[in-house]
Specification:
- There is one protein chain.
- By secondary structure, this protein is of the alpha/beta class.
- The chain is built from eleven helices and eleven strands.
- The protein has a six-stranded mixed beta sheet with strand order 6-5-4-7-8-11, sandwiched between helices. A three-stranded antiparallel beta sheet has the order 1-9-10, with no helix packed on it. A two-stranded antiparallel sheet has the order 2-3.
- Helix 8 packs parallel to helix 9.
- The longest helix is centred in the C-terminal third of the chain and has 25 residues.
Length: 326
């Protein structure tokens, strides 16, 4: 699907100062989203971020979806049955947010832009994880993957991270997003095994699939895709001007043309299928966040899916209907 965004209104509301805005955003989310999640996720913290400890706790038979690197070959040879090592979980680990802040995430067909969704997701997850003693860091992609927020803990650090996201200016030179650069930078910066959240609309030049798969071999990677309903189904809006947010190119289209809307929907559906297939091949969990979605409901659905997958991985293979849902 071509990356064309509706031209924003020339009279945008004034934005608060980044530092004051970060405090306001975090405080609002703590009183609304985090309070609701505390009740929904009670006892389910492990579904958000699974540790990888070093202390051997047990041995058990190999099951589908187990990491082959944990196979104990001596026990396997002796018992003639594959066995894996089970380690005591290390709860104090780092989570990294690879955040796409390219111009395309500024789009939103309603009151909420994709950038707002990304900011709220990072704020909620970062605060939730730091409250459990974990550290969070970030790599920000705008003009390039050149802003690194080191992994630290505490509420003040979460505010620092939000401030960095809100203060991120536009790229020096307009151009298509290079998501692969962000993923390659993360591979060299994030050395210790961590949970990595790739927060992006995945509107990028091709070639990011292989770096994502390589990153997933070393870390537990979650693809958090932000999207807007207008990117999937274009309604009858009459004659409108679409603008590519990253190159500035404009195109006048007649959305009253039913044939045009059908072609748009077909191309969008094809891109959706290709994107989901690419994420599945890379071996990463995926969470979709729409600008018209409820953040609490989306995170709850995601943690529920991860909890079921985790239980099924211990007990055996995943049923076909859950494989499709995943």
């Amino acid at each position: 699907m071509f990356r064309r965004k509706a031209t924003p209104s020339p009279q945008a509301p004034a934005q608060p100062a980044p530092a004051a805005g970060a405090e306001h955003v975090l405080r609002r989310l703590e009183w609304t989203v985090l309070r609701r999640l505390d009740g929904l996720l009670q006892g389910d913290y492990r579904t958000l971020m699974r540790g990888a400890g070093l202390d051997l706790a047990d041995l058990r038979e190999y099951q589908h979806h187990d990491d082959v690197r944990h196979i104990d070959w001596n026990v396997t040879a002796r018992l003639q049955q594959p066995h894996v090592r089970v380690f005591t979980e290390d709860r104090e680990m780092a989570a990294w947010f690879l955040v796409d802040l390219s111009p395309s995430v500024d789009f939103g067909s309603g009151q909420t832009a994709k950038r707002d969704v990304s900011t709220e997701f990072v704020a909620v997850l970062a605060r939730l994880l730091t409250r459990h003693g974990n550290r969070v860091g970030a790599l920000l992609l705008g003009g390039g993957a050149d802003r690194v927020v080191p992994a630290r803990g505490g509420r003040a650090h979460v505010l620092h991270l939000l401030h960095a996201m809100r203060a991120r200016g536009p790229a020096a030179e307009p151009g298509p997003t290079q998501l692969g650069d962000l993923l390659q930078a993360a591979a060299s910066i994030v050395r210790r095994r961590s949970t990595v959240f790739v927060v992006s609309d995945f509107i990028s030049t091709p070639g990011w699939e292989r770096p994502l798969a390589l990153l997933a071999q070393r870390h537990e990677v979650v693809a958090v895709r932000v999207l807007d309903p207008l990117e999937l189904d274009l309604p009858d809006l009459g004659l409108i001007t679409l603008r590519d947010a990253e190159t500035g190119e404009q195109l006048l289209v007649d959305t009253h043309d039913r044939g045009f809307r059908k072609r748009f929907a077909r191309i969008a559906a094809q891109r959706e299928a290709e994107l989901r297939e690419s994420l599945a091949r890379a071996g990463v969990d995926a969470l979709e966040l729409s600008t018209d979605d409820d953040l609490v409901d989306a995170i709850a659905r995601f943690t529920d899916l991860r909890r079921r997958r985790s239980r099924l991985a211990v007990g055996g293979g995943m049923p076909a209907h859950l494989q499709k849902a995943a």
